[in-house]
């Protein structure tokens, strides 16, 4: 009881400090934010030894706790990864400042001059699993967009995150960045997350969860403030009857196998029943040759006996692994229907040389990203030319698709008059 | 128990019908939506007698239940008000279609052609108090923006809402509008609202509450889906030392007294201590002459003895009535500090001839609308030239300020390639 009272007070102070920092950050110039980011990049390099020592302890503890190889790989830092954090921070420093842009401006008949101007969102809370690089990336994206950030990483990466945070604070000591622009929740008490989800007395404007489905689902269910997240990416590739065979083969294998663990990886392949049987066999063979398990419907198993049977559950599943579910559909409309039924509104691609079919697919589907003759793995802020991203939005509000620095801003209306009153 | 089971099933069907209607509405052309809106306007006129008869029963029941005169005035319809609903629907029919606009388009070095295209949000749930005109307005705004809507009005207006809804359905019977584009929750069981707040199995994309503070607060606290709302409008007018006296007088009295019950009405007046005492007395006299109660700090009470003392509570209060709290502040920075402490991020105005002071005020404040030398009562979609509005957003995400048809859309990325794969 008394401990929770203390934690409550500690978190409340954190919220107030963040709110005050956000007010100061709204006033920073583009140049001041750029300088702060370059200072942080230098500090990350300067602190490399300390960061790697802290990370070593985290990794050893994770090994003792018998965590999976995948978790340990995400947790582990080395010279190359610290350098990538520093370089990533420099790249974000080089992005155009997204704050203060005039998004629209018009004059009313009564002479009122109305401008819609981009502004920072305010205080962003980032709740993420044990990937220490997110600590640096998220901080940099929030600084570029003029937001204060409260970071809460997974407990397995606590020492690494603290070391990275010390580097950021060390950098901040000399520049214009407010001291509490980037705060790290150091307690591993999970009650702290619950308090953040409630918004810390109205000081948090936006929560961004990053991690597995259970983390994101918890945040979406419990949060009392807006959340920007994607729950899962059940991405589809539809090979239409008028597909170019070479494009169909190249795009499908890339969409599934380039990297299987990212949200833009394809999980289901829809083959039009009017595609040549040879093309279907070639595509499935390409995937199998790359080590992909095929789970097919009866038709697929008839032409590709190595395929296992797909169950209803498969069409709902984001494997994030070298597995693909494959279904034969009668036509374009059936493909659209399948995606609307089982998809997660993330990213879908049609492969076809038929412009009308492509445009129908692009218009009918309500996913954040729809592609024609291109790999679903392009679902990425960097590939979109937006610079780094903090995540991919699959909700309907505010921002969909890659969330970069521009999407971390909001706007206000600035109205200039000369004494107008409303009749 | 069995009743709730039935209600659950009924509401689930409502959600599924809305989702299906939303899919069909995404495909409607601008012209088809315009035709549907004109049909609805005609049907509202055709059904006037039925609507007025139903409304009479609602008003009589409200009188028997001893509801306040203000509630009954909002509830009451007559020929002029039905005509205003029909005319409002025609005005919305005349707005440019906000769907399918190309918001941005660029080509990547690898040849990918990326377009950001506006799309409807999907299914919008509107939860509102007993103002029957909202039934028609909200339906029209959602149809123009290609969204399906689920309406849940206050129980006092149930018969009126049903009559208006019958008119809308009657109109829809002949055109391209899906039968379930506009649905009304007819049960007065409050459990239905709870189900809507949970999102009806993921079918609701956005909830818009409209009504008093307690309704909005309940929706914001309980909703599991995004909410677009404003909780309150504690709007400020700051009369700077370099204010033009005539503008200061005209704008202040208009901001407070033009209509006191709307969210853009000023609630607090901040007078710069360097303003001439005569100007202060004139402004307070203007307000008092219009029947406004003045609640002032000690300085104000010294120069304007009719003022009552303002308490700490007053600075936090949205009166929505002919009352204003008045405070003398030392300078611009103190005015900004006061607004940041007590304001609700809705609308604030500075009156000054000093451009630098004005620009500082406009930049420093983080409200949805900031004005220079103009009345806070311009906080309105119509006055902004956006056509009708469904409300004013004071949150940070998606849309701030007036929420018109454009703000009722979202976007998706349409990417056209020629076989690109990601390296």
> What is the number of strand segments of chain A?
16
What kind of oligomer do you see? Answer: homodimer
Strand content of chain A: 15-25%
Largest interface in this structure: A-B, 65 and 65 residues
**Number of helix segments of chain A?**
15
What's the rounded overall pLDDT mean of chain A?
A: 94
Which strand order does the major sheet of chain A show? 10-9-11-8-7-12-13
Distance between the termini of chain A: 57 Å
Query: Roughly what percent helix of chain A?
Result: 40-55%
Helix and strand composition category of chain A: alpha/beta
Alpha-carbon Rg of chain A, integer: 24 Å
Runs of chain A in which pLDDT lies below 50 for 5 or more consecutive residues are: none
**What composes the largest sheet of chain A?**
7 strands, parallel
Q: Can you give keywords for this protein?
A:
16 strands, 7-stranded parallel β-sheet, globular, 4-stranded parallel β-sheet, alpha/beta, 15 helices, homodimer, about 425 residues
SSE layout:
2 copies of one chain form a homodimer.
Chain A: H1 2-26, H2 30-46, H3 48-64, H4 69-75, H5 79-93, E1 102-107, E2 113-120, E3 123-128, H6 132-144, E4 148-152, H7 158-172, E5 182-184, H8 191-197, E6 206-210, H9 213-222, E7 235-239, H10 245-257, E8 266-272, H11 277-289, E9 293-296, H12 298-303, E10 308-309, H13 312-315, E11 323-329, H14 332-342, E12 347-351, H15 355-364, E13 369-374, E14 391-393, E15 401-403, E16 409-420
Parallel strand pairs in A: 3-4, 3-6, 4-5, 7-8, 7-12, 8-11, 9-10, 9-11, 12-13
Antiparallel strand pairs in A: 1-2, 2-16, 14-15
Helix pairs in contact in A: 1-8, 2-5, 2-7, 3-7, 5-6, 6-7, 10-11
């Amino acid at each position: 009881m008394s401990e929770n009272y203390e934690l409550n007070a500690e978190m409340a102070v954190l919220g107030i400090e963040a709110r005050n920092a956000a007010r100061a950050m709204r006033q920073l110039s583009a140049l001041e934010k750029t300088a702060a980011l370059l200072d942080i990049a230098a500090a990350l390099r300067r602190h490399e030894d300390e960061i790697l020592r802290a990370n070593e302890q985290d990794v050893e503890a994770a090994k003792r706790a018998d965590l999976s190889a995948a978790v340990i790989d995400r947790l582990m830092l080395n010279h190359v990864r610290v350098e990538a954090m520093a370089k990533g921070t420099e790249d974000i420093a080089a992005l155009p400042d997204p704050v203060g842009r005039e998004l629209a401006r018009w004059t009313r008949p009564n002479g009122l001059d109305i401008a819609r101007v981009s502004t920072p969102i305010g205080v962003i809370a980032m709740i993420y699993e044990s990937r220490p690089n997110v600590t640096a990336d998220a901080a940099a994206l929030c600084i570029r967009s003029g937001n204060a950030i409260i970071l809460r990483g997974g407990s397995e990466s606590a020492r690494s995150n603290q070391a990275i945070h010390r580097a950021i604070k060390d950098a901040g000591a000399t520049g214009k960045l407010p001291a509490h622009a980037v705060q790290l929740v150091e307690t591993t008490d999970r009650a702290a997350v619950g308090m953040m989800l409630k918004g810390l007395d109205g000081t948090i404007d936006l929560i961004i969860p990053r991690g597995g489905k259970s983390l994101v689902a918890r945040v979406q269910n419990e949060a009392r403030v807006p959340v920007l997240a994607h729950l899962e990416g059940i991405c589809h590739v539809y090979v239409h009857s008028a597909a170019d065979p070479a494009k169909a083969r190249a795009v499908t294998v890339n969409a599934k196998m380039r990297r299987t663990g990212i949200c833009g990886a394809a999980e289901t392949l829809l083959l039009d029943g009017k595609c040549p049987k040879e093309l279907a066999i070639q595509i499935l063979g390409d995937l199998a040759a790359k080590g992909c398990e095929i789970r097919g419907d009866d038709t697929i198993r008839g032409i590709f006996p190595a395929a296992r049977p797909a169950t209803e559950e498969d069409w709902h599943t984001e494997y994030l692994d070298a597995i693909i579910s494959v279904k034969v559909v009668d036509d374009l409309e059936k493909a659209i229907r399948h995606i609307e039924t089982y998809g997660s509104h993330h990213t879908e691609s049609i492969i076809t040389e038929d412009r009308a079919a492509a445009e129908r697919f692009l218009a009918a589907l309500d996913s954040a990203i729809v592609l024609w003759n291109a790999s679903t793995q392009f679902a990425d802020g960097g590939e979109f030319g937006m610079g780094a991203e903090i995540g991919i939005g699959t909700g309907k509000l505010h921002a969909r698709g890659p969330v970069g620095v521009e999407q971390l801003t909001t706007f206000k209306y600035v109205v200039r008059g000369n004494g107008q009153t409303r009749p």
